[in-house]
Amino acid sequence: MGKEITSRSQDYAQWYNDLILKSGLADYSAVRGCMVIKPYGFALWENMRDELDRMFKDTGHVNAYFPLFVPKSLFEAEEKNAEGFAKECAVVTHYRLKTDPENKGKLIVDPEAKLEEELVVRPTSEAIIWNTYKGWIQSYRDLPILVNQWANVVRWEMRTRLFLRTAEFLWQEGHTAHATKEEAIIEAEKMLEVYADFAENFMAVPVIKGLKTANERFAGAEETYCIEALMQDGKALQAGTSHFLGQNFAKAFDVKFSDKTNTLDYVWATSWGVSTRLIGGLVMAHSDDDGLILPPKIAPLQVVIVPIYKNDVEKGAIANKVHQLVSEFKQLGIRIKFDDTDNARPGWKFAEYEMKGVPVRVAIGPRDLANNMAEVARRDTKEKLSVSLDNLPYYIKTLLDEIQLNLFTKAKQFRDEHITKADTWDDFVKLLDEKGGFVAAHWDGTGETEDKIKELTKATIRCIPLDNKQEDGTCILTGKPSIQRVLFARAY
RNA sequence: CGGGAGGUAGUUCAGCCCGGUAGAAUACCUGGUUUGGGACCAGGGGGUCGCAGGUUCGAAUCCUGUCCUCCCGACCA
User: Fold this and answer.
1) Which of A115, A259, A324, A442 is deepest in the core (most CB within 10 A)?
2) Residue A266: which domain range?
3) CA–CA distance, A178 with A189 (Å, rounded to integer)
4) 10 Å Cβ neighbour count for A227?
């Protein structure tokens, strides 16, 4: 027997864990809250990273790298930001171990190697970066600075979940400096567009672009923009954020520039990031009870060819033909694998590649070869078709585009069906409990009401959509006047 | 961080209550038969029972501590 996956209806959380582990995306590790990203999962991340990196460069950004450690004094310089992260920071206090005199072969922290100043392991890099920018910026001619870094960060989470929330994770963080407020806001909005474009066109995950409320805003930001996605269980997932930081960090780190009139002013800032959490969202947006379903544009493998044969003669004839095909596929830029290993039979391979979410499977046996055909199976719909070998690579190139589009269309339809208006408290609660998804409801605009609703329903305001329609109404909880609906949901 | 569950072969698990030479299935290796949806037969290798102490003539089993994982909760820009 092979690997069994818990079904979504039986236990959604277990289904998610089974998928990650059994498809080979990641593993648990010996370190609390930290996971191992396995080669298959990392190949997926590399594809995502490469595409995002290309998009960042296309919008004028360059990459750099800043230290993992942040001296505590720098970290605390921007108070709100420091407070926001204080509870989840790992801190380095010593720089040396020594042999335990009481217990040979064991090591202890050398009490004489205590650091004069503790080092915070970065939960984000604003502090160390703004401390550095101070030395880079003197006049408006030094601006804008459009820097991104690919890095790991550490946030000491109490409860972790593979990809969605781990103590250490991989991400990119863009940190930009601008001469004007307007330019910084445009930058924050531009990067939100980049994230939305990437999510929808590469991950095939539809997202809602919006603004966070004051309660949900990044500590240290003036405004937090976000993209929110919807998972199959009806819970929302924040998939990316972009912050307009105002002059908060410039003031905290004393970063001033002289403008054209030689007047000194503080620099305007943004920061924006997406992380390996996107992989968790990707898994939960598309996959089914048979395994992962990956969108072709970022799937590590787009096509797998499984040969079917009774003996070496048949195997050889098939391999001959397939080797030709494989080079044609590669010329079209398709990521393909010919699985001619002998240690598993075709049926086993079919199930395995379905588990791994490979978008297209091609099976070729003696009968196909005689007819110059192949059996093509698509992962998203499970449909099988016989296709001529003559135009197979071109056929599949088109099919991959079709699958990409189909995944997005399906996810978008699900998402759209799960944005529901509620005008009474009873409806509101009932929708959250029974249907899930986003509930569009009026809100009086206060943090107190938001907190109260969270306490009562566990739902938070995911965002105020950017293109939100203005309409008069009354708050779902307090009945006070409201000018627009906001999106509530239970979230990861 | 609180409550619950768990950790024994690569994997899934039995054995633990009631201490006495560590088991099954599957995977793996060899040979053979097979191969169009998770093959079969025969033979074989593989585990300091999470780790560290303790009790005992003897510990996977009892006791204490500790680490890791899962679920629920609190927390989580």
Assistant:
1) A442
2) 12-286
3) 14
4) 26
Q: Radius of gyration (Cα) for chain A, nearest Å?
A: 26
Q: Name the pTM for this structure.
A: 0.96
Q: Which residue is nearest to nucleotide B73 (CA to C1')?
A: A159
Give the span between the Cα atoms of A296 and A304, in whole angstroms. Answer: 12
DSSP string covering A149-216: EEEEEE---SS-BTTTB-SEEEEEEEEEEESSHHHHHHHHHHHHHHHHHHHHHTS----EEEE--GGG
Q: Whole-number Å distance, CA A292 to C1' B42? A: 38
Question: pLDDT digits over A56-73, tens only?
Answer: 999 999 999 999 999 999
Q: What is the ipTM of this complex?
A: 0.91
Whole-number Cα distances in Å, A378 to A21, A128, A158, A363, A384: 23, 48, 40, 11, 7
Gap from A159 CA to B2 C1', in Å?
Answer: 12
pLDDT in tens, A459-474: 999 999 999 999 999 9
Average pLDDT, chain A: 94
Per-residue confidence (pLDDT) for residue A7, from 0 to 100: 87
- We report the CATH number of the domain holding residue A437 as 3.30.110.30
In whole angstroms, give the CA distance from residue A209 to residue A206: 10
